[in-house]
Specification:
Helices cover 3% and strands 54% of the residues. The chain is an all-beta fold and 149 residues long. It holds the Pfam family Zn_protease.
Amino acid sequence: MSSKIVLGWREVAALPVLGIAAVRAKIDTGARSSALHVDAQWRYVDGGQPWVGFRLSPGVVGADVIEAAAPVFDERYVTDSGGHRTSRVFVQTVLSLAGTQREIEINLSDRRGMRFPMLLGRTAVTHLFTVDPSRSFLHGRARRRVSRT
């Protein structure tokens, strides 16, 4: 019997250290790394260390635009599903999901046009979770952000 927590192919996650209480996430075990959509990002130096500031919309009804900052953990090339290779900034932060917390690496990217602002790759879910691709939102549902025109 497995002691792993079952996730659906889409869930609502939180990144509490970054001030993100809820963000719609697609669980993608085909992707190695995790990605977080940012509308804008900027770099600066604080205490002699490189930092990145960023702004994002978490895609959840009632959630405001969030501005956050984190030390740059790494910068490396990532190949997206279309085969395009780009250099991305990575940060380390705490993922809160399904009643658990764990530190993960996330790259900051432009996921505009994607249905989910966050993609959780296999390195974020390994050893703790298993994914049932026929299920969704097993650990709570957040409504999609609705555009008001």
